[in-house]
Design a protein that fits this description.
By secondary structure, the protein is α+β, with helices and mostly antiparallel strands. Among the domains are: about 90-240, no CATH class; about 380-450. The protein has helices spanning about 5-15, 35-45, 70-120, 125-145, 155-160, 165-170, 175-180, 185-245, 280-285, 340-360, 365-375, 380-385, 390-400, 405-450, 455-490; strands at about 25-35, 55-65, 270-280, 300-310, 315, 320-325, 325-340. The strands form two sheets. It has a five-stranded antiparallel beta sheet. A two-stranded antiparallel sheet has the order 5-6. The longest helix is centred in the middle third of the chain and has 60 residues, at about 185-245. The radius of gyration is 37 Å and the shape is elongated. The two termini are about 45 Å apart.
Length: about 500
């Protein structure tokens, strides 16, 4: 979801629980900086009564700034950001190398899987599978090993030297004794027996070597995945810092650049937003509501947006240079009543908006390869814990074919019994669904006649009352914040 889509979705959620009341404070003071204003509001929202409003939680979910290109602030922040980006890019180059290595390892292991499947078929108890595995391995041997003999290879002799029966004789012979029984001339038999002996030796040794290489590459894949996780963990703080140091381009509602920033001036603009929430207990609204099981919690919320147009002044201190901001401040206070699910969605959208780019750069490669990585790094026992039903039975049967045991057979029988029971329950449940369908068809009529009591209808009125109480409390808190802030800063009140 893009940033604009996330912002649009957040606005829609907040609109459902917004109040018509809104408080605005605007004043220009070159003597008062942004820091005292920001922290006064933050502390007043957090502090418990009587010194504050006592909200349960206060978060800052917007922190953006933009500076003119000629300002010293732009130059210093740009330098700091460049340092973070350079460090991040160096680690990202290593990340890309590791990713390429992991991709190559996965493709190698997939090729090994294909070869090892033929060996598994060769050791199978099924005669048909066994024969298929044997023929496949003989074909591989002819194409990859025997072909190196040049004109002396079986395929070359069959095609070029008219040993027409040689290829079929080799494929049908199981061993040297089997070759002797074939109805062929002695010359062909001698060649077949020699090649059969070579093939049997290759079959024995190649399986061992292949399994050894397979285990080595799996172990190497595990180490590379661990390295990738470490590198991505190291690069994230640099990417986050670079994003925080980055400047936003503020625009007017019509999409034009903000007039508050003039490139020839040394000024900047900041947008900060605080969001505070406090739970409204249903029993506080009505004592009888404590007997009702509400589906969601409701919160009285305040959003405080601070827009600051500043002329930053640099000061040199023991810890280096730092900036003091002073200028015009706009404070907008908006009350809301929101459900817990709505607040959770707002937080998730803001987090996604902030972290989408960083996740794409660091975690996307791991997510894309997750299935393949899991396949090669997980043991059969770990896979069994995650699987169920038919998939679990298939894996158990594969394990049994590799190494038959009474324990695995017992697990297969147990899982097949469970699957059969679930199927029977599903059949019985299908009859219940018929009656459920009748109930759904009658629900509209039942609602009109009051024949059935709907849970949603019973609880909708209390939920509305709790939400209404939450918005009234939010409006009161917003006014208190507005009024006390003005009094504390010597502004006229009425």
């Amino acid at each position: 979801m893009s940033e604009s889509e996330s912002s649009k979705k957040i606005s829609e959620i907040k609109k459902a629980g917004s109040s018509k009341i809104e408080y605005r404070l605007m004043y220009d003071s070159m003597m008062e900086g942004l820091e005292p204003i920001y922290f006064w509001i933050l502390d007043f929202l957090k502090d418990s009564k009587p010194s504050g409003l006592g909200f349960d939680e206060v978060i800052k979910y917007k922190d953006e700034y933009d500076a003119t290109v000629s300002s010293g602030y732009f130059g210093e922040m740009g330098t700091r950001r460049s340092v973070m980006e350079d460090r991040a890019m160096k680690i990202m180059a290593t990340v890309n190398t590791v990713v390429r290595s992991i991709i190559n390892l996965i493709y190698d292991l997939k090729e090994f899987d294909i070869r090892l499947a033929h060996y598994n078929d060769l050791h199978s108890g099924n005669p048909s599978k066994k024969e298929g595995g044997k023929l496949a391995l003989k074909q591989i041997w002819m194409d990859q090993v025997d072909i190196k003999k040049g004109r002396g290879a079986i395929n070359a002799m069959a095609q070029q030297l008219e040993f027409v029966t040689l290829r079929d004789a080799f494929l049908v012979s199981k061993d040297e004794k089997d070759a002797d029984k074939l109805d062929l001339n002695e010359r062909v038999k001698r060649i077949v027996k020699a090649r059969i002996a070579e093939y049997i030796e290759w079959e024995k040794n190649s399986e061992k070597e292949l399994k050894k290489r397979y285990d080595i590459e799996r172990a190497y894949l595990k180490s590379q995945v661990a390295s990738l996780k470490y590198y991505t963990a190291w690069v994230k703080p640099y990417l986050i810092s670079a994003k925080k140091l980055g400047m936003s381009e503020f625009k007017t509602p019509s999409g034009l650049p903000s007039p508050n920033l003039v490139n020839a001036f040394s000024n900047m603009e900041m947008h900060l937003t605080l969001f505070a929430k406090k739970e409204v207990k249903p029993e506080e609204v009505n004592s009888n509501y404590r007997f009702i099981n509400f589906k969601d919690k409701f919160f009285s919320c305040i959003e405080v947006e601070i827009i600051f147009r500043t002329l930053p002044r640099v000061y040199q201190g023991q810890g280096g240079s730092h900036y003091v901001h002073s200028g015009r401040t706009d404070i907008i206070i908006k009350p809301y009543a929101l459900a817990e699910s709505e607040i959770k969605e707002i937080y998730e959208l803001k987090e996604r908006e902030d972290m989408e780019m960083i996740d794409e750069m660091t975690d996307a490669s791991l997510r894309a390869m997750h299935e393949d990585i899991e396949k090669y790094l997980m043991t059969d026992e770990e896979k069994l814990k995650k699987l169920e039903g038919g998939e679990k039975i298939s894996l158990l049967k594969e394990m049994y074919e590799k190494s038959p045991s009474q324990k695995i057979q017992g697990q297969i029988d147990s899982e097949e019994l469970k699957l059969k029971k679930r199927k029977n329950e599903a059949m019985r449940g299908s009859f219940g669904n018929i009656f459920k369908g009748f109930r759904q068809a009658l629900d509209p009529l039942a609602s009109m006649l009051g024949m059935f009591s709907s849970k949603q209808m019973t609880f909708s009125a209390p939920e509305k009352k709790v939400r209404k109480s939450a918005i009234l409390q939010a409006e009161t808190s917003a006014y208190v914040l507005y009024d006390i802030y003005k009094k504390a800063h010597g502004m006229p009140t009425w």
